[in-house]
Amino acid sequence: MVDPLVICALATAGFGVWELVAGRPLPHLPGWHLNPRATRWAGAYTFAASLLVFVLALTHHSGIAFVTYAILVLAFAATVLATRMLRATI
Fold first, then answer.
1. pLDDT (0 to 100) of residue 17
2. Which residues have C-beta within 8 Å of that of residue 38, sequence separation ≥ 6?
């Protein structure tokens, strides 16, 4: 049986590759409005984090992969929000 975390990690890795290559988010997808350079960095981060989670899930460490995925996604969201709030006050 295929672990659902593997499928989720592959899907988000695909989104990360799209953002890294295209420099823009998927069309009609709600999200943060970042400039193209920031979108490429976000895509690279998403791809790297998803690849790490994918490898952990394939080695049957699903619990560690789930916790790692949650921490990395929350850290990314907090970083983007903090950066946007910091730039708004400058």
1. 92
2. none
